Each structure stands twice: as structure tokens, then as C-alpha cells.
Amino acid sequence: MTIHLDPFYPVVPDAIWVARMVARGARTVQLRLKDAPADEITLQIAEALNACARTGAQLIINDHWQAAIDASATCIHLGQEDLADADLAVIRAAGIALGISSHDKSERATALAAHPHHVALGPIYETTLKKMKWRPQGLDRLKDWVAHVDRPVVAIGGITLERADDVWACGAASIAVVTDVVFHDNPDARIEQWLAWAEDRRSEPRAAT
Fold first, then answer.
1. pLDDT (tens digit, 9 = 90+) per residue, 44-63?
2. Which side of the chain, N or C, has fewer Cβ within a 10 Å radius?
3. What is the DSSP string of the chain?
């Protein structure tokens, strides 16, 4: 199965945001749906998949791997705790590509043992999105991940458009963006700025994504 990670990888809270992103040209979007009942999760995933199907965008489902399989999604993303509870055999049998979060070398090894399509590292910078036990990883740590992970590395956490070039220069295959879009004062304008940034970098050589 071919999975493509665009340089700009917005992470959004619901299907309405997914549709908003792909309508403007986003090519990779993660649906990170939290604290919702099962029927709402099913509905949101279906709506997000339909929005992406209309534009050819890649949808990645966070956490809800069984619902993603049931909806015939093609890619999921798991944190380390979710990975521990997931049935990797079922996920592999469904042919779903897997992205996994990591925050230190031990978690990196755990992620790679699951043979994911890509590995995420974060937070690169201080983030206000949620309380985390990890300090900012920084650009040197990101370079180390890129050097030692034999698959695409996604950078996430506190990354603004103004910081994007520094992150990209470390070799990240994709930059996951949450706050700088979803909580921006002018989200639509910010999306356009990010898309213009991504367009300029799609032709640059990177590890296969």
C-alpha cells in the first residue's frame, strides 16, 4: 500500500477540520479525535474519509485502530501507550500503514520493532497543546532520529511556520502541525501559508515517504 506524507501534515480534532484542510489543498491530514463515544468516532472517521476521497488526500487516524480498520482506512497513528494495547497482527493483516510516536531512544526501539511506515519525534519545541513529561527534543535530537531511523521521520510539537525551515533542514520527511493552525488567529490564512511552504519543498529530495 502506498502512503504519502506531505511536508505539511496538519493534525486536527474533527472531520469538519479535515474537510476544511483538504478543500484548501492539504495532502496529508491526521484526525485526532479524543473523548468521543464509539458511534461518534465511527461517524467522524467516515466523514473524514469521504472528504479525503474527494480530493485524493491521505487521512491518518489517531488511536482508534479498530474503527479505522472497520472503515477501510489506510493509515493509523499510535502513541506508545496505544501501541502497547493494539493488536499489531490484526493491523498488519488489514494492510494498514502505521505511524508511531516516540520521545526517547527506548521508545524509538519499541516503535521500530513494530515495523511502522514512519516514526514521529516530539515535542521538538515547547508545546502548550497538552502537558507532557518530556522536555523539548530540539533539533539535534531530530537529526539523530533521521540518522538512525530507516524510514520517514515526522517532527511534531511547537512547530510554527517560522520554525519550519530549521526543522526541515534536519531531514524531517514531514512536519506535523497542530496549534499553529487550529488555534491560530486566522486559521485559513495560516493554512494557505503552510501550503505555500509545502509546495516549495515537495520537489526537494527526501527519504521515501
1. 999 999 999 999 999 999 99
2. N
3. ------SEEEEESSHHHHHHHHHTT-SEEEE---S--HHHHHHHHHHHHHHHHHHTPEEEEES-HHHHHHTT-SEEEE-HHHHHHS-HHHHHHTT-EEEEEESSHHHHHHHHHT--SEEEE--SS--SSS--SSPP-HHHHHHHHHHH-SS-EEEESS--HHHHHHHHHTT-SEEEESHHHHTSSSHHHHHHHHHHHHHHHTTS--S--
Whether the predicted pLDDT of 108 surpasses 90: yes
The confidence score (pLDDT) of residue 12 equals 98
Residue-averaged pLDDT of the chain: 94
Statement: residue 209 has pLDDT above 80 = no
Instruction: Supply angle C-alpha 30, 15, 130, rounded to 5.
Output: 55
Residue 76 has pLDDT above 60, yes or no: yes
For 179, the grid coordinates are 496549534
Q: Which cell goes with 48? A: 473524514
Contact 36, 63 (CB under 8 A): no
Q: How far is CA 178 from CA 9, 110, 113, 129, 160, in A?
A: 9, 25, 27, 8, 9
